[in-house]
Design a protein that fits this description.
Number of strands of chain A: 6
Structural class of chain A: alpha/beta
Number of strands of chain B: 1
CATH superfamily of chain A: Phosphoenolpyruvate-binding domains
Largest sheet of chain A: 6 strands, parallel
Shape of chain A: globular
Largest sheet of chain B: none
Strand order of the largest sheet of chain A: 1-2-3-4-5-6
Number of helices of chain A: 9
Radius of gyration of chain A: 17 Å
CATH class of chain A: Alpha Beta
Distance between the termini of chain A: 16 Å
Strand content of chain A: 5-15%
Order of helices and strands of chain B: HEH
Oligomer: heterodimer
Number of helices of chain B: 2
Distance between the termini of chain B: 28 Å
Chain lengths: 195, 38
Amino acid sequence: MTYGIMNFEFFSSGINEILSNSGLEFVIYDQEHGNISYEQLKTLSLYKSMLSITRVPALKYHLIAKSLDAGINGIMCPKIETREQAEKLVEYSKYRPEGKRGLAFGIAHDNYDRNVDSNIFTSINSKIKHLNNNIILIPLIETALGIQNCEEIISVEGIDMVWLGHYDLTDSMGIVGEFENKKYWDVVDTFINAC
Amino acid sequence: MSYLEIMKKKGFTVIGLGHEIALLQDVLKERLLKFKKN
């Protein structure tokens, strides 16, 4: 079992150590509702005590690639409802051949390492493969349509896990905040079975 | 049983405890209430 936390408000440079010392293993910074800047994302990504993920505001290339270039370990993307959207998430996040992310090396995400023939990487292709393999992609399933297509979304190559967005899900079902409603738990069971 | 406990029992393998603002407020409220009672 893995436990983590979302971070909406407190972006001090010590926050990852504080959360890690509490026993948490990952943190998800919130760019959808929170106000973290790219500069803060870059700073916090330097602290490797926790897995750093960011929730981008929307499925847009410039939001996803920019966060990854800042050094974040993973992307959570809101309101993924279809296989095509999940495929876009992979396309925007990964380099070729898995995706079409633009290449930029020797910057924050690779610790400013300009060498492609170092001890770690024998070629640019091995570096790209390593970077592609070390990005976590999380579609946020938070609508009735997303639940309906959940199995297809999960089956997309490059998607690592799915996350249930409970509040928006109940909203899309017309039962906002009714977490004891049988309709809600039936949908949760559909989600679990798809996984 | 709390919402998170139900989710754990249902088989969720990765759990987010919520956001840090709510958790901080919960802890501070609990501490303050405990202090006021004593």
